[in-house]
Each structure stands twice: as structure tokens, then as C-alpha cells.
Amino acid sequence: MHAWIDVWNRHRDTLREWVPSLVLLPVCLFFVLNRGRYTFLDHADLIIHEAGHFVFRFFGPVMHVLGGTLMQILLPSILVGHFLVHHYRFGVQLSLLWLGHNFINISVYAGDARARALPLLGGSRSIHDWHYLLGRVGWLEADALLSDAFFACAVVCFVLLVLLPLRMMGE
């Protein structure tokens, strides 16, 4: 028993650096393993997405449609940058969690471009963002590939947040 106490005392600060990663790892795994399952974060993501349409509507129809997804990426990315500049590791980790979740959300939406089976706000009179965007450039058949690329971005965010103590230890 004394050996464990000695190890704890010698490595206490290092071990504390990893607690947020250990707490957030199961959340990341849940999001990855339940891709497309509606979670508590989807409410916030939807509000941010719709706000993006409003903000970007002034830049033409393509940017208006793309604005929802852009806002879902920009807002958490800005927070990641802010917390990095201020050396607040847990803020970076939470922001990366949110960014990763948004990428999963986007991956599901992009993957639905051809099928258009997801329910949309506004019902049948709503434009499916990714059907419109991919259709304009003739890439509708690439919806699954794009979906997988967004999902890969999510996984990268989650790996970065878990391994962040390696980079920011002692700051």
C-alpha cells in the first residue's frame, strides 16, 4: 500500500494532468460508437447551424446554405484557439469535444445528401443543405465519402483532446 502512496506522491501532478482526458475519453467513444444518435449536444448544434444560415445569408445562396455547417465548425474552432492562446487545457479539450461532435453531426447530414431521409426544420419545403451543395458541383454520389471524411475529422479531434496533456503539460 505504501508503494502506491509513494507513486502517487511522486507523480501526483502528472496524473492530475490526465484526469480530464480519462473523463472525456468515454464521452468521445460514446459519440464515435453511436454516430447519428441524437444527443444533448445536438440541440446546441442545431441552434448554431441555423444561426450560421442567418449570418452567411448576406453572401449569396451558396454561402447561405453552407453557412450552417461553417458555423458548426467555426464557433468551436474559435474556442479551441482562444483556450490554446490562454493555455487553458480543459477549455481546449471541451472545445475539441464539441468540434468533434459537430463533425459527427455534419457527417450524418452530408451522408444523407442523396437519400434526404433526415427530418429537417421546416419539413418538406426545406432545402437539404448537402443535397443542394453536392448537387451544384456534381458530387452527389460522393456523399458517403464526404460523410466519412467529416467523421474522420471528428475522430482526429477526439484523439487530440485525449492526448493533449502530452503537449500542454505544466502550462
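Second entry:
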Amino acid sequence: MNINSHTNFKVYTPDYIAKEMIDKSLNIGEYCYNNLWITGYDIDGKALLICKNNILKMLKKYEIEGKKINLVEINSLMEEIDKTYDIILGNPPYFGEKNNKEIFTDMKKYKFGKENYEGKMDYAYFFIAKGIDLLKDGGILTYITTNYWFKADHAKKLREKIKKYTTFKYINNYNRSVFEDAVGQHNVVFTLTKEKIKGRLEVIDNKEKYYIDSDKIYNYKDKIILAENEDLERLDRVYNGRTHFLGELLNINQGIVSGYDRAFIFDSYDKKYSEYLKPFYKNKDINQYSYNPNKYWILYLDSKVALNEKISKHMNPYKERLSRRREVLKFIINWWELQWARDEKIFNVPKIIGRQRSKINKFSYSEGEFYGSADIYYLTPKVENINLFYILGYLNSKVFYDWFKYNGKMKGDNLELYATPLKETPIYYSADKSEIAYIEKLVKKQIEYYDEKTQKLIDRYFLNLNYEK
């Protein structure tokens, strides 16, 4: 049965589709079921059995018995399937390449796998791509997956394929796990059709329902943005009103990776190691414009530090564990060194510091020693005469939050303020020195004592710059 692609289909299950088809069969005289209507593929025999039983229960209600349910236990990704379908449903497995390299290596041996592979991708992407290949023109695909691929750097190839061949019809972004045994997932159900048309896309995002133009769902980097048309227009003005991207003005670096915190992090200052101890901060210490006093100290041992009796006495109990680190085994670092000490300069120069993950944008300013963990990012001037206070005001503004919420990375309700999306963030950097001085004065007031009225002035400035241009 061919389904008109403009029909208001949203979320399907195999037994639901079978029911719809049986109901339509009454138009030709009586309820009937054709075993060619539905074909199921799965590598998991138990999953196929559940599917079969659900369809049989539904058929029983119509007093239809003795019908074959066409289910096949195979890995459909690695099989050449010479049929195309009107409707494809799926709940693919979600796992990354990092701990499953053999599976991805096997996929690349096949033409389909090689064509659709992208480094650091998720296995589920193959299933979406395969579904598109197996759809008839005008056919419908409905899947439930995680929502990370909407913006993931390693899903570019998948989004290109979706944009080229299909149109979204429905997206329900639960942004939480819908499975009891999969805590921490952020799921989405989506429906698309294999055709390129302009139309209205129904979106349910965190239980809020709205409609947007289907051709406007992709941003300037072809990432998928869920926002109402009014919001999309506002974000376009932010982008088009930019003078720079942050990465053109700032170096953006991650904090220290020790490789084994127990060996390097101290709860209190120990005079014995005074020449090596540095004040150490964690992600949660950073607030908007300010940061908490450090509670910890780090034994900062980089390539410039030679092993001596004092260091040996402290580090020897951890030697076996530290020696198993990848960089030690590859002779990149000595066993007593921090795994990634970074360029020490970034911890001591004037800089903006920011949380890697936070519900709101939290950036502060530091001129002195500020050694931090890998979940802290350091933003230092890339070009001369850049005013860090002006940029700090922008990073803590509602304009920045709004932009990053839609165009940056999110995990659940948290902003994921990683280097790449930060570098790609547009900014209007004024050429008017009086404007720079105005924001600098307000930001310095916020550093001294945070005040909501002052923040409203900062927000208003950046709102007017970006939205009225």
C-alpha cells in the first residue's frame, strides 16, 4: 500500500501500521491481512518475537488467523536488500566508535558502510542512512534515537544525506530518556519523507508544541536547530550582524588532564612541595564574573620538571598506575608527569575562564594563577588590543546564551561549552572605543559585585547590537 507523503502520520509501531492497513482493507469488502505488507529485520531474535506477538494479538482482534508474519533475523546493515518500502520504522542501537572499533571496522568493509562512515560517529547513524536508502520516493521513515546527531560534529555526513534527500515532517524531542533501563539518554522521535518539499514541520520540544517551516531547520553549519520561526529569524540576525567568530579573536584551550588525580591533587597546601604546588580550581568554582577561592592544589609536573628524591618519594606509590597511561607507553611523557599539562602560560596571563558544562553561561576573569581541570576552558587574546572585559560581558549575556542554546552543544538542559562550538560563536566586536569602554566599566562593576540591574544594561546593549542590525 502506498502512503501519501502528506498524510498526517507521526509515530508508528508495526502493529499500528498493520491495524491501519486492515482497517483500510474493509473498503474492498472485508478485513484482510497480506503478509507482504510488513517485513521486519533485526539481529535480535527476541525483539522479532515481541514484534510478532504484538501483530498476532492485533490480528486476533479482527479474527484473522493463520497468517505468516514476515520477520527476518539478520544484520540488515550488512545485507544487500533489493526491496524498497513505503514506511520504515526503527529503534536502532546507540553506541559510539570509541569502545567498539571492531564493529565499525567491519562496517567499513562494505560499500554502504564505507560510504556512510564518519570518524567518531554513532552506530545508529548507519541505520538512519540505511533507512533512507530503502525508502521509496515519497516514503516515510520514523525512528526513535538519541538527539545528539542533530548538532554533533561527527554527524555531518548523515545530516548532509538527510538534507539532500528528505524533508522532516515531525520531531518530538523528549530530551530525556524514554527507556527505564537507559538513564542518561536524551531521546527524540522523528518522521521524515523521502522527497524535497517545502511545508510545515510539527515540533514538540520539551513538551512545547509549535510549527516551523521545514526548510529552515538547518543552520549555517547545517546543524539541526529546533526553534520557532520567530526565534530562527532572531538567531539569523545575530549571525548576520557579527563582525567576527570568537575563534578569530581568542585562543580557546582546555584545562589540565592529570591522568590520575590522586597522585597530583592535594586537599591542602604542603610546604614540602611549595616549588611545584599551584592553586587548583574545578568547574563548579566558576560563577558569572567571579570565582570561588581554591580548595585544592595541584602538583604541577610538566616536561620541565626532572625527577628528584622529593618527587620520587611522593609519586612512587602511584608509579605502576601512572606508567600505564597511553602517553607514557608511547614515550610522549615521563611517568611522573601530568598527562596533559598544557602550555603553562595560559594559566598565568590575563584570561577569561569558563565552565565546560553548565545550565547557564558562566564565565569569569582572572589575571593571576588559575590552574584548572579539563572541564574548564581558558580564553586568551589571539590578536593585539582585544578587550577581554567586553568579550566577557558578551559571554555572560542573554544573547550569547540564546545563540548557544540553539546553535551550540547541549546535553539535556546543560550547555556544553566545548572549544569547537565556542570558536564558531558569532560576536559583534564594536569598533567604537566608547562602546568598548562602556561595557568594560559595567563588567568591572559585575566582577566587584554582581547586580541584576547592571546585567540588564549589558544584556540590552548586546540585544540592540545584534537584533536591530
